[in-house]
Amino acid sequence: MKRTYLGEFEEIVLLTVVALEGNAYGVALTHYITEQTGRSARLNQVHAALHRLEEKGMVTSCLGEATAERGGRRKRLFTITAYGEQTLLDIQAVRSQLINQLPRTLKPSLNL
Amino acid sequence: MKNFKNSPQPPRWADRLLAWFCAPHLLEELLGDLHEEFLYQVNQVGEKKARWRYIREVLGFIRPFAMKRKPSSFTLHNNPNINTLFPNYMLKNYLVIAWRNIWRHKGYTTINGLGLAVAFCICVFLFLIAYLQLTFDSFHPNKDRIYQAYLFANDPEKMTRSGSLPLPLSPSLKSEYDEVEASTRILSTRKSTVAYADKYLDQDVVLTDADFLKIFNFPLVKGNRNTALANVSSMVINQDLAQALFGHEDPLGKTVQHIQEGRKKTYLITGVLANAPTNSSIRFEALIRIENAPFYQSDQNNWTAFSHKVFVKLKPEVSQAAFEKKLSYFTQNYFAATLQDLKAKGAKPDEQGQIFALRLQSLPKVHFDTALSNGPPLAIIYVLLGIGLFIMIIASINFINLSIARSFTRAKEVGVRKYLGALKSQLFVQIYLESALICFFGLLLGALLAYLLLPEFNATFNTRLTLGHLLQPGFLAFIGGMFLVVTLIAGGYPAWLMAKFNAVAVLKGKISLKRPGFLRNSLLVTQFALSCLLTCCTLIALQQVDYLRQKPLGFEKEQLISIPVGNQVNGRQVLARLRQKLASDPCIRAVTGSNINLGKGKDNVSSRTTIGFTYQGQDIQTDWVGVDYDYLKTLQIPLINGREFEVSYAADSVNRVIITESLAEQMGEKQALGKFLDINGQKQQIIGIIPDFNLYSAAAEKRPITLHLSASEPINYLLVRVSPQSLKTAMNKMHKLWRELAPGTEFTGSFMEENIDAWYQEEEKMAQICSLASGIAIALSVSGLFAVALLVMEQRTKEIGIRKVLGAQVSDILFILSKDFVRLVILALLLAMPLAWFLMHQWLNQYAYRITINPLIFLGVGTAAILLTLVTVGFQSVKAAVQNPVKSLKTE
Asked: Does residue A3 sit within a domain?
């Protein structure tokens, strides 16, 4: 099986880009990640991840329109590429394959 | 919509920090996200915390992806450890290439280097003269508070300003005005003799007040500044005189004799002052108190006898304008009669509301004030600076033109270097270094030339420049600045041009090598226009000086010897004995004496006495000249009416005068002969009328002159007319005779013709400098043209070959090649000539007698310029045209 190079945080960011389809830019992604995962993501981390993803060809970006709360500055909107989607699916496949091959089912921790 | 302008803002410095380190293409979106997040945080956690978080976020962006990056890390140039402008591994190569280039193109280097050297040398001289003149008197630390006083009169005929003031003025000024810190009179007389032991030296002894030492800051080498001139019989001398009189002995406490016009007085030396620098208006060899002046007793309270200069030093807080205003009471008080006279004549107040006033000229400006000193007019200094600048511009233009022209032949080298990866900046530095090297050698050579020519220059132009003047810091800084500017422009422009070449185009041979370019043409035109301008102006100035010299003066200046008598002997006695000795000499036509010289003799003294009197209600001013018998005969001035002074009329030596035509005219008398002039209460009868003649320079208008004969007045000059056959022998004879008549005194006789020429020394000197400068300018321009022509021929060799193969004659090719250059020169002439006409018209206006500008001058200069161009270009063209075309075409 072909290896895909995607870090864990990158994977989350990439998934968020898909989730926020059409409105995926720095601040929105950060807030969404914080809300959904409960981990505190910071702008610079998100931007760094987006940058890496773009270099790897998982996302493309274009400049969107300006809004007033940004002091008239434009936002960069990210969309996932086909290669990005394929990567996500590959990861998913590897995971499920591994889980399925487990000798026993995983038990959730006792959280009663 | 919310007003975001009033909403909280993140810290500006953090934004600026981000902008500094962040890659520019990311900045907008990052700042936008950051600001949006900040507003969100403000709502969530408050402004203060939000600001902290904002800063933390910004700092968080200091990561590789967001940072500014060098374009690529692969090339050598981006290694921060290697200096790209002066890479040490290339520097040696640059120097080698530069040296080879200089060596291979010897002609080019010589023209450039030598041209710069000559231009630099003459610039050093011209700028040095100007610098010394402009810094005149600036060595006095309190120069801003020192003023020369002068009287201003808005006479309806002519506004006058005079620095000659009456004796009581300075003491009154000092006692009546608190603003005056010190005030001194300065009376310069003709040279008088200072004697010690057996030494008799003719010196400039200046009569002054004790305040002299408080006003002027000549360092006192020996003695006490406060008491040196306290005594009427004290004398302060300068270092030169101390050395000449006493050698190594201590001058303080020694007594010397001062002999002036036969009177002797003993003085005690109380101080030694440093020699005044060359650029001081105040010159002296010895100082004594003004109370020793012969007329002091009779004139010390006389407000109408004007004799000396007055300098004042105002207190620091006093402004000149306010003080001058206060002085109007002073003039109303002491010059009431003059004021009355002027008002009666119908004088109007000037723009300051004054008809007659005592005013001040600040010391640094005195030198250029033609009414108060005999310094050159300021305009001349600017002319010198302008000429120097012109020459430097011409030399720089040569440099630029040649470098640009040659740059095309170097295009291949530049192309290859670029292809191999040379940066624009590296190419620039390489080519610039090469130019700077030539500039540097040129300037070094120029400095050497200046040093070697300094004595020659001093002798020719009667200046006293020394190496010390050259090394003054201000001047050195100026020269250094000039060097920088010249190399920057002359070396920098071509270097920039070449560095800009498109490497691919050059290697493909697509750079146009043939079109001369607009810039080069305009530079050539500028160069020629400047040289033509200088030449035209010089020729016109020379004509004017010649005209003044040739102009009849009203007396015969040829075959006339003038001998200054000096101080040690009595002129009247010497004259009497001379008459006796020469009575039967066939070589001598006539002998006479006078109290003033005509022209400027070897004693370099010129003095003038004018007298004013009223004749039937008319105010008349006249020159008052003391003469001896045979004056008219010796000078060969004809009589219009009456007779000359004669020994047989006893009254002739008491109260008889001879006047000039214009004086008779001013008196309003048709028959002035026999009338009486009332001069200082004495009636003087007119016994003769003569035509006007020039006592002073022919450049000035003729003024009324009165000749009188008085046994009590000194005779300072002997005038001897000799026969034309024996000029040399006559002079030798006079020299021999002088030793008999006045043993121990130097013979300083000279021919009147030389003395008259000396009147025009200033004009002469200027004309000489201008001739030299325009000669150099022309030589530089022609050498530039020559070199450009040389390069053009080189570049067009192939074209010429093809033309010849197709059947062109040598004459056709000559025409084609020279017509471009001739066209440029004609354009330059058209620019230069109207300007020259205008400038010289202005200059000539200052002369009472002047030439009209001859259009033939322009025609001559124009023809000469075109001929010179044809010869310069033609020489190259013929060489190119007669070349075998096979040779030039085969080289492809």
From this structure: no
